[in-house]
Fold this sequence. Notes:
Elements: H1 3-28, H2 35-39, H3 48-59, H4 61-75, H5 82-96, H6 98-101, H7 111-117, H8 120-153, H9 157-174, H10 177-206, H11 208-217, H12 236-253, H13 255-263, H14 267-298, H15 316-325, H16 331-361, H17 374-399, H18 405-429, H19 435-458, E1 468-470, H20 481-486, H21 491-496, E2 503-505, H22 521-526, H23 533-551
Antiparallel strand pairs: 1-2
Helix pairs in contact: 1-16, 3-10, 3-14, 4-8, 4-14, 5-12, 5-14, 7-8, 8-9, 8-15, 8-16, 8-17, 8-18, 8-19, 9-16, 9-17, 10-11, 10-14, 10-16, 11-14, 12-18, 12-23, 16-17, 18-19, 18-23, 19-23
Amino acid sequence: MDSVTVDIVVFAFIIIISFALTVYKNLSDSKEKTKNEYVLANESASSTWPMLMSIARGFLGVRVFLGYPSELVYRGSELWETMYGILLAFPLVIFIFIPVYLRLGITSVYEYLDLRFKSKLIRCMASATYVIRTLLILGVATLTPCIAIKTVIGVPYYASITVMTIAAIFCVFSGGFSSALMGDVIQGILMFTCCVVVIVKGSIENGPINIIKTAHDRDRLNFFNFDLDPTKRATTISALIGHLFISLSMYGCQQNYVQRYISMATEEKVKRVLLLSIPFNAVMMSLTWIVGMVIFATYADCDPKKLQLINDIDEIFPFYLEDKFSMIPGFLGVILGTLFNGSLSAVVSNLNSLATVLWEDFLANIQYFKQVSDVKAVRIIKILGALCGLIVMGVSFGIAKLNGIIEIFIIMTSATSGPLLGVFILAVFFPSVNWKGALAGMIAGCAVVTWVILGSLSLPRMADQYLPTSTAMCNNYTFSEAIMLHRANDTNELMSGITENFVVSTEESITQSHDISPEHALTYFYKVTYLYYSVIGTSITVIMGYLFSITTGFQAEEYLYKDHLVHPLVIKRRPYHGASLSMEVK
Length: 586
């Protein structure tokens, strides 16, 4: 039995065992009788450390595990600095959103917008934004492990995506939020262990000093670039500001995260988990970038992509694992099983949140569904989750034709996060904003961001720009025997054809002057980096929402709501016409 067959067997065994454990857990637990028991985790699952791991895995996940190493190898460390915005978001979420949410006793975070603005239209629009955004992101999450599976054992994308979808639907019907949380914990630990093993082995082979020096000398460590040009793909400023807005929207306004907070017993526990997430996420995120440095040091003078041993930059990490760990029988099968189950856990958790939002914010408001029992509501939520899973499968098939999972993920999150964050900021901090202004702000924010995205797509397509890579030291002994036998039939011919040292760039960097003359100003605006899409969407939503509330006039009855629906800092501010914030809402 060759190594590939062993890996396939181990991979299948891990998946089967995971399913068996899930079934056993669900059969041994008491049957979920109410909607809240299905939607929210129990006390043990929502304790500090499981929740901490779940929040970290919710954002970092498998796409980061594979995407960040390839990002460093072929594009450098620019996006590493998005960590600043991510970490800064946690204390801001504690300050801005937690004091408001945990006093409401809500199941869907978008129910808060209904309470605040007394408008189901605002609630539904915010929910629809979240649903669209999550379906797109889950498409990336589903595809990511399939890249590794295809790279190592050759299973086509469509086959592994289909299996992933079927497995996710099964878990949605049998599990609930609690089982998804525990899956996050197990897979997070395994992924952390894998990163540490790769870093230790790479440091032994290449030397830690040489790893850092190679990355530095070949321009892979580009920190503290304070260039103010907004058309640059990523700088320190755009990474910090852009990802701060993205992270505030994700951690503060997105159902799958707020659902985690609500499932915890006290506000103090929520604050403790979010504060602990700062160092925890910093370590987890940095480990994946260090893995990228190890891989780059290994292939700095013999790029597998230039040799056509891999087709996509995101295949570099699975390629490295096959090259360096194939001598350990079943090791790659364990990694692939971990990736598959880790992505499955994330998909199940988010499908659960999607189904909850669709039920709470749409169907539950229809007269027919208002009469259904909790048991029937759980069944409907499960069916909604299954339907969302099928949509995610279709999205994954489409994304499989694109290149660079980290860039795709950031574009999707940045483009859809701004208007959502903007309407929550209006609700929490601007008592004078009414439902008309909030609606106008969201429409304007979505319209402007959509306009910018469509404008950017209308520009001439530029080839992906990667940093220079080298094949100067390639020879027949560069890669392991497993690579020589299984990766390509013409590997030996590729190696023997390299007779002299040369350095080539995967794509030549194209330097363009930015002509800001009137006739080119709009084109320049379309070139703004996708990291700023969330900033644009949030700003437009807040500005237009406030101005539209002023221009539509002030009606006292529109501003009557309970004090706990706004941030404690603005409770003392009274709305116009002397209406009291402490008056009851009818």
